[in-house]
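Subject: for your reference before the review

Hello V.,

The reviewers asked for a structural picture of the protein, and I figured it would be easier to keep everything in one thread rather than splitting it across files. Below is the amino acid sequence we used in the manuscript, unchanged from the supplementary table.
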Amino acid sequence: MSHSKANFMSGLFERNKRDLLGYLTRRVGREDAADLLQETFVRVLRRGELEAVDNPPALLHQIAINLVRDFVRRRKTEAAHFEFGDVPDDRPSSEVPTDDRIAHRQRLHCLRAAADSLPPRCREVFVMAAFEDIPLDEIAKRLGISRNMVEKHMRFALHRCRAAAVG
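And here is what came back from the structure prediction:
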């Protein structure tokens, strides 16, 4: 990137970041706004030839609007596929055939291995929710993070556990 383009982008960022961050925070919350702000500027940088755009701030705002739409759409899809309710107690009874109990133990072993491979904070959230039966709001409070972040950790953990169960 040339020195003049770098200066142009730096100035554009400094002049618009506060307004864009405010807009994004109102639309998606503080947790995700900074990521979307960064993505807005990454997309502008990829575009190139920004100096030829008549109204760069309007372009930035339109990109931010599109990112918010994508974000909301993704959240709705996740909400339709992931339910954060009670963790089912599916331990086999003693009347279950031996083969089923062995299969259950193997699945449980895979689940524990998947949980052990999670990043520390993610594993902590997963264990509290799945094994200690702590509500997500309480986990957020105890760990000093938002419920949104707790849900992100749970989505990631459940994705890993499902992949381990299938694989």
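For the response letter, the relevant points are probably these. The mean pLDDT is 80. The chain has two domains: 3-81, 98-166.

Happy to draft the paragraph if you're swamped.

O.
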